[in-house]
Amino acid sequence: MIIKVLGPGCANCVTLERVTREAVTALGLDARIEKVTDYAAIAGYGVMSTPALVVDEKVVVSGRVPTAAQVCELLVSPAT
Fold first, then answer.
1. What is the CATH architecture assignment of 2-76?
2. Which of these is catalytic: 10, 41, 43, 79?
3. Which of 5, 13, 52, 53 is catalytic?
4. Order of strands across the sheet with 32-36?
5. 72 is catalytic
6. Cis bond upstream, residue 51 (ω within 30)
7. CB-based contacts of 55: which residues, under 8 Å, 6+ apart?
8. Under 8 Å CB-to-CB from 78, ≥6 apart: which residues?
9. pLDDT 10s digit of each residue in the chain, 80 long?
């Protein structure tokens, strides 16, 4: 599983990365977490509001910071 945290590095982006790492650890997933800060790459996902979370190339959250529990739910059953 490849998880990407999209955002310029603001406080919300840092928080999203932290709660995502907590969720991955809690679930015991084998996942690679990447930070994407390039605006062109972020726009390439169709994201207009950061932070955003991408799981296996699918945007699952944009414009808000979910809780670790919410990220767990997204990772167990990603949105379609």
1. 3-Layer(aba) Sandwich (3.40)
2. 10
3. 13
4. 32-36, 2-6, 52-55, 58-62
5. no
6. yes
7. 1, 2, 3, 74, 75, 78
8. 55, 56, 58, 60
9. 999 999 998 999 999 999 999 999 999 999 999 999 999 999 999 999 999 999 999 999 999 999 999 999 999 875 54
> How long a stretch of residues is the chain?
80
- Domain map (residue ranges) of the chain: 2-76
Sole residue written with tokens 């990603």: 78
Distance CA 70, CA 75 (A): 9
Tokens of 67: 């809780």
Residue 28 CA to residue 10 CA, distance in Å, equals 27
Instruction: Please state the pTM of the whole predicted model.
Output: 0.90
Question: Do residues 32 and 1 make contact, with C-beta atoms less than 8 angstroms apart?
Answer: yes
Q: How far is CA 10 from the centre of its chain?
A: 14
